[in-house]
Specification:
single chain; 9 helices
Length: 210
């Protein structure tokens, strides 16, 4: 499944790049937070329905560096995650990460008309899942919090810290934070953390007669 997702991303990127339609695709299929509050914002424009943009945005990348880094992380973490889960649960995690990322980006700035594209929000969910599944550092219970909860909190804090540093770095660059969905990265990662245990239970649940 992860290989198919990566192939679809690369194929669509090449089509958009060669036809010089990347910017147009970002406008009609990217995540634009203001559209969630006002779905009629693009009336008269042949845009993707707003409820589908969390998925359509994952298929659009701004350039070679953008898609190169995203696909590297997708394959590196995603294939390991798929090794534990089956292909369909991995796809479910990816899709849920995409929607969580879109929600977080909207919550961060509901009135923004900037277009956010790329699969990094959905991939962030896979990165979180990978970090939980393959972490080797021992954790101890802290008060009422189990070792697993402590691990999740540490990972969340570390990821948010990295994203805040990224936000600080890009705020001095042309386009500013509007060009990078920092909130989407955080939303996707948190979704991945929260979904890991339920998906593990679903994947390895006892079946009647087994």
């Amino acid at each position: 499944m992860i290989v198919w997702i990566a192939a679809a991303n690369l194929l669509i990127f090449l089509i958009l790049l060669l036809s010089d339609q990347v910017e147009a695709a970002a406008l009609i299929a990217g995540i634009i937070p203001a559209r969630f509050g006002d779905p009629s914002l693009f009336d008269g424009v042949n845009a993707v329905p707003v409820w589908l943009t969390p998925l359509s945005a994952t298929l659009i990348h701004a350039g070679w560096a953008h898609i190169g880094f995203n696909m590297f992380m997708l394959l590196f973490c995603g294939l390991q995650v798929e090794h534990v889960f089956n292909r369909w649960l991995t796809l479910l995690l990816y899709v849920m990460g995409a929607f969580a990322a879109a929600f977080a980006q909207w919550a961060a700035d509901p009135g923004s008309t900037a277009s956010y594209v790329g699969a990094s929000g959905a991939i962030s969910a896979l990165i979180a899942n990978y970090a939980l599944l393959y972490s080797r550092q021992e954790m101890r219970r802290v008060g009422p919090f189990s070792a697993n909860i402590v691990r999740m909190l540490w990972l969340a804090a570390a990821w948010i810290g990295v994203q805040m540093l990224l936000a600080l770095a890009v705020s001095t660059q042309p386009g500013g934070i509007g060009s990078i969905g920092v909130a989407a990265h955080i939303g996707g990662f948190l979704a991945g953390l929260l979904l890991t245990r339920p998906l593990l239970h679903w994947r390895f649940r006892a079946r009647p007669g087994a």
